[in-house]
Write a structure and sequence with these properties.
Layout lengths: L7 H11 L8 H24 L9 H29 L8 H42 L31 H12 L13 E5 L6 H12 L5 E6 L6 H11 L11 H12 L4 E8 L2 H10 L8 E6 L2 H7 L2 E3 L5 H12 L17 H9 L3 H11 L7 H7 L8 H15 L3 H9 L11 H10 L11 H14 L11 H13 L4 E3 L12 E3 L13 E5 L7 H5 L10 E5 L8 H9 L6 E5 L5 H4 L10 E5 L21 E6 L6 H10 L8 E6 L5 H13 L5 E6 L8 E2 L17 E5 L2 E2 L17 E6 L4 H8 L6 E6 L4 E5 L5 H6 L10 E4 L5 E6 L10 E4 L2 E4 L23 E7 L3 H5 L19 E7 L5 H17 L5 E7 L1
Parallel strand pairs: 1-4, 1-5, 2-3, 3-4, 6-7, 8-9, 9-10, 10-11, 11-12, 12-13, 13-14, 14-16, 15-17, 16-18, 18-19, 19-21, 20-22, 21-25, 22-24, 25-26, 26-27
Antiparallel strand pairs: 23-24
Helix pairs in contact: 1-2, 1-3, 2-3, 2-4, 3-4, 5-6, 7-8, 11-13, 12-13, 15-19, 16-18, 17-18, 23-24
């Protein structure tokens, strides 16, 4: 479903479903349904046209008609959904004898009544559809054109900001200038054709920064141009603007697009040019513009700005613009308050209400947000700031600066495909500063029918793609944190479209619209049509027994999240029956419940479940065998904690075997308090053999001795067994493998594996090389217990590539953790000679040598690394007492860690084991670590934690 067309996208297929013979509708009802389909298709086409026009450019009659059409579609879908739910009916828990007979007879009567009622409802809807269609004709809404707008594009002001008024851009400006002025061979941050791409969301100051760089550098080139592009650009006009900036004087109007490209290439052929292409929105426009920018090997440069990460990656030379620091945010804020001179404002040394910090926190370092908030406070006494901050946000359009800000942000919104607009608007139901996991959010979208179905792809895969596109466009951040400006924008749009209504202390009325976010507790019986219900009892005083008993009435419910709700004192059969009636439930997420066992009893009835997450507290995890789980054949995600009571060997094996029936499973997070015997491990392997769609596998054993949690690798090397080719994440926590499971972890099969956590008794050179050859590995958490010397030799990789010095092993690894280990000598180098060694790191009872191909220890020769060229974060543990002793090895001394050739290193995390060490030894270990960070060209951030 997309909000612009209401429920029509999902309603029309459902109307087709009603025409099937299995529902036994009478002839008149079927005729009316066919009429409705034709009329609604016509209405849908009109709404498709309307959605392409910004709200502020639509005439009032068009807005009113579109809202009425959407509301009609919601009402119609409610009727159809209610019919489909009732005609199929919820499956009760087991009934025997005469009770089962009477229930069957009752169901037959109910279905006959339901069939009669829908015929009457459809007839009523038919009259409303006729009225809406007639109104469209009456008001002549066939030719929908945007209303006339006045005023300049508010973004133009960014091009004429005085240099003296710029705050906080010095560092970014100098960084870009450095990238643009260095030679091609020396600067890896510039793309092959001298392109740098600045990316960031609207209002971050990309245009202002680009103009500052342009003004600084334009005198160093033969010719220059600064050209804005924007959404849905007229590329002929873009090429004309470039030519005009380049002082090409002839009749441009007579040239078509191809001729303009040829003219530009001809003019730039032998010139050293600097061109800024500002505000590109899509890769297609960039590819066309790039055709005109001849790569003439003359040291030319191109700077582009974009809100879209995909465009920046495509163009190359990506530079992600960061938000302003707190100090620069404060300077900009007071500069705007005081007319340009922030030093003239005398802030009190102590603010009881901390209002300045609150304002800056709301702005989150975004210049446009800071300027907007300052405009709201300008001229107001300091005592009124708190009231203004509470009562006025970015949604207040009475202020011209706020209106301009919303216009700039709305460009990103209207550039979204319709379904992404719907998903973005849905985020308006969450409060400010709310953090939500990606997976639950995607399941909510699926429950609300926001995710379009595609043959051959799972709904979650498509929904995850929607999420990633919103991140790619910088509208939301990873983890789904939304900037207050964006939140106010989508709340404003949602309110105007009646898409979301928020009930809080200031709004007491419950509207009739379908999509309602309940932020103040209201009786569940009032919302029988809701699809998504989230209850967090930490923030509400709720009569738990009363409201849970209303669940059986929510037959449309598809997503249920209960957090810290507390089920003690409620009859377990009652809870099982309440949840068991929710036949259409897709997601059941129970966190922190006192007794998840009560919910487990009804699992076998929830056959449409796609996601099941049962995470009770340690003392009350699952202790009852969820026998019905094998019936959940549609399940894609399962997270479950198996409690430490009630699980004998037979029960555990029965559950593990049942997992093999869940062939659609993509995600399995299994936490078990009872350890796995060899037999249970074999059962797990056999179940995994069936799970060919698995992408995320996490197994954690909480209890058990070291011996119990030491798994025999032979079970994982059974004939014909291999992990799913789709596997992206494999975590085995508190589990030690006796040998490296080489038949499972195979680079040729696990082409997508990006995250791996593994604990091994031993690993040899060949096995370590296998890890290094995993093509997509980005995160490696490795724990080793062997006392043997380990090597990872580049000679094991393809010879030709090794001779060329290309990246071979761990080529995409971003983070490497070496956990608390026994004595390990791990050598990652070219060969067995000292010239192949580098980066000795003293671990607790361990020395790890990481590095690249160069002559001599710590030479810093700058050759192309063959190992870990992309590692940004390195974590390990050092033994302060044995640090010097352990580093006195054939491969290097302890005076330097020789990390210089890890070209991408940004963070070092070192845990220092101080047990038995004196103060001098601890200080020496700290000094070596600090020295390693200081001499590295990147000056990586160093974190040290001492423990005893």
């Amino acid at each position: 479903m997309e909000f612009a067309t209401g429920a029509l996208g999902t309603l029309l297929p459902k109307l087709g479903q009603l025409l099937l013979g299995e529902y036994n509708l009478h002839r008149g009802a079927k005729k009316n349904i066919k009429f409705l389909r034709e009329e609604l298709q016509s209405i849908q086409a009109a709404l498709h046209v309307i959605r392409e026009v910004p709200l502020d450019q639509l005439s009032e009659p068009v807005k009113i008609w579109a809202n009425q059409a959407r509301e009609l579609s919601y009402d119609m879908e409610d009727i159809v959904d209610t019919f489909l739910v009732r005609i199929q009916g919820p499956d009760p828990l087991r009934k025997k004898g005469y009770k089962k007979f009477f229930k069957k007879m009752s169901d037959m009567v109910t279905k006959a009544k339901t069939q009669h009622e829908i015929g009457k409802d459809i007839n009523d809807i038919k009259e409303r559809v006729k009225e809406v269609a007639a109104r469209r004709q009456r008001y002549k809404l066939e030719d929908i054109t945007p209303a006339k707008t006045t005023g300049l594009d508010p973004r133009i002001a960014s091009l004429y900001t005085k240099v003296a008024d710029l705050v906080g851009i010095d560092e970014a400006r100098e960084e870009l200038i450095s990238r643009l002025t260095k030679g091609d061979d020396d600067d890896l941050a510039v793309a092959e054709q001298g392109i740098v791409s600045v990316v960031g969301f609207g209002g971050l100051g990309k245009t202002t920064l680009a103009k500052a760089v342009y003004d600084k550098l334009k005198g160093q080139f033969d010719c220059n141009a600064f050209v804005p592009v924007g959404r849905n650009p007229d590329l002929k006009k873009v090429f004309k603007d470039i030519l005009i900036d380049l002082h090409m004087h002839f009749n441009l109007d007579i040239l078509d697009e191809r001729q303009l490209i040829d003219k530009l290439r001809e003019f730039l052929e032998n010139k050293r040019y600097f061109i800024v292409i500002d505000d590109i929105w899509d890769t297609k426009s960039w590819e066309t513009i790039k055709l005109a920018l001849d790569d003439n090997n003359s040291g030319s440069r191109v700077l582009i700005t974009t809100r879209t990460h995909e465009v920046a990656v495509k163009a190359g030379g990506l530079y992600k613009l960061q938000q302003l620091s707190y100090d620069n945010s404060r300077k900009l804020f007071f500069a705007r308050i005081c007319g340009g001179n922030y030093r003239s404002y005398h802030q009190p040394a102590y603010e009881p209400d901390g209002i300045t910090d609150k304002i800056l926190k709301k702005c989150e370092g975004v210049p446009l947000a800071i300027i907007t908030m300052a405009s709201l406070l300008e001229g107001k006494p300091r005592e009124e700031w708190s009231e203004v901050h509470r009562s006025i946000g970015f949604g207040n359009k009475e202020n011209q600066q706020v209106e301009n800000t919303m216009k700039i942000l709305s460009l990103s919104y209207y550039d979204l495909p319709p379904r992404l607009r719907t998903c973005l608007l849905h985020l308006s139901v969450f409060p400010e500063d709310y953090f939500i996991e990606k997976n639950p959010l995607v399941w909510m979208w699926i429950a609300e029918d926001f995710v379009q179905k595609e043959q051959g792809r799972s709904s979650f895969e498509i929904g995850e793609e929607y999420f990633n596109q919103l991140v790619n466009r910088n509208l939301i951040q990873l983890g789904c944190h939304i900037h207050d400006m964006v939140l106010d924008l989508i709340r404003s749009i949602s309110s105007e479209l009646n898409f979301v209504t928020i009930l809080d202390k200031n709004e007491g009325l419950v509207p009739s619209q379908q999509d309602i976010s309940v932020r103040r507790w209201v009786a569940l019986s009032s919302f029988q049509l809701i699809r998504v219900l989230s209850i967090d009892a930490n923030t509400r005083k709720i009569d738990r027994r009363c409201h849970l008993m209303h669940l059986r009435n929510l037959l449309h419910l598809r997503y249920l999240w209960l957090s810290n709700y507390g089920l003690y004192g409620i009859n377990s059969n009652t809870i099982a029956e309440e949840i068991g009636t929710l036949k259409f439930l897709q997601t059941l997420d129970v966190q922190g419940e006192d007794n998840c066992n009560q919910i487990v009893r009804s699992l076998g009835l929830l056959t449409k479940l796609l996601c099941l997450r049962l995470r009770g507290p340690v003392t009350e995890s699952i202790t009852i065998i969820p026998d019905g789980i094998r019936k959940l054949t549609s399940l894609e995600e399962l997270e479950i904690i198996l409690g430490h009571h009630g699980w004998d060997e037979e029960a555990l094996r029965r559950f593990i075997k049942a997992l093999g029936s869940l062939r659609e499973l993509r995600v399995l997070r299994l936490v078990s308090y009872p350890p796995f015997s060899t037999e249970v491990q074999i059962d797990l392997v056999e179940s995994l053999r069936n799970l060919e769609k698995m992408e995320h596998l996490s197994v954690k054993i909480e209890w058990g001795t070291l011996k119990e949690n030491c798994w025999d690798t032979s079970a994982w090397e059974a004939a014909g067994f291999s992990l799913s080719r789709r596997l992206r994440l494999l975590f085995t926590t508190w589990i030690t493998f006796t040998r490296f499971p080489s038949s499972c972890i195979n680079p040729r099969r696990l082409a997508y594996l990006s995250h791996l956590s593994l604990k091994l008794d031993a690993i040899n050179e060949q096995e370590l090389t296998i890890l290094g050859m995993l093509p997509e590995l980005r995160f490696l958490d490795l724990t080793l217990k062997s006392t043997a010397e380990m090597k990872c030799n580049t000679a094991a990789a393809p010879t030709d590539a090794a001779k060329r010095g290309e990246v071979l092993l761990f080529q995409k690894l971003r983070r490497f953790n070496l956990n608390y280990s026994e004595k390990v000598w791990l050598l990652l180098g070219k060969d067995n000679e000292s010239s192949g060694a580098s980066f000795p790191i003293g671990c607790v009872h361990a020395v790890v040598l990481l590095g690249s191909e160069w002559e001599g220890v710590c030479s810093g020769g700058g050759l192309v690394p063959t190992l870990m060229p992309c590692v940004q974060k390195l974590s390990f543990t050092v033994d302060a007492q044995g640090f010097k002793k352990n580093n006195e090895n054939p491969y290097g001394g302890c005076s330097s860690l020789c990390l210089e050739d890890l070209a991408s290193l940004q963070n070092i995390e070192a845990d220092i084991d101080c047990m038995g060490a004196n103060d001098a030894e601890v200080e020496e270990a700290e000094a070596v670590l600090r020295g390693a960070a200081n001499v590295h060209p990147n000056h990586p951030k160093l974190g040290m934690i001492k423990f005893w």
